[in-house]
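Exercise: predict the fold of this chain.
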Amino acid sequence: MTGGGQGALGGVYKLGAIRGIDGRWVPKVKLSEQTAKVSTPGIQNVRRFTAGGEFCGDAVYDELHGFGEDVGVELPGHPGRCWRVPEGAVGEDLLVPVFRGGELVYEIPTIQEVQARGREQLAMLTPAVRRLMNPQTYPAGIEWTLAERKARLVGEAGRGKEVL
């Protein structure tokens, strides 16, 4: 469903993997003539990194592959342009299960807890990102081994190969 020229959501969920008959997950990509619309393969999550009491960036990653030793993030719209997660940075996954097998597995916070967390999270953005005049862009993108895997799968799909 679309909202025409007035869409309410700036993103779309797309299939990133399917489970094979043997139970293993197989990454998939959906091609598009517009680079920004090519899907990202895998079982994805988002990890936010913190260093020195401030957020330093977010990375979409594939849960099945995790992160390598040297964590870097490719910035959207800038293939090959990456930032490195600082050594010693601590990561927190932002996507957490709420339901599993139809059962609630998440402790729902009170509205007061949600408000307090929101204030705490905003305070952890650097002043350069929080400022209203000419704010610095917050670094967020795709973990670089996932970006490389995506590029490889797109190339293979474009050549008509089975994408695994």
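Check your answer against the key: Residues 110 and 116 are 10 Å apart (CA to CA).
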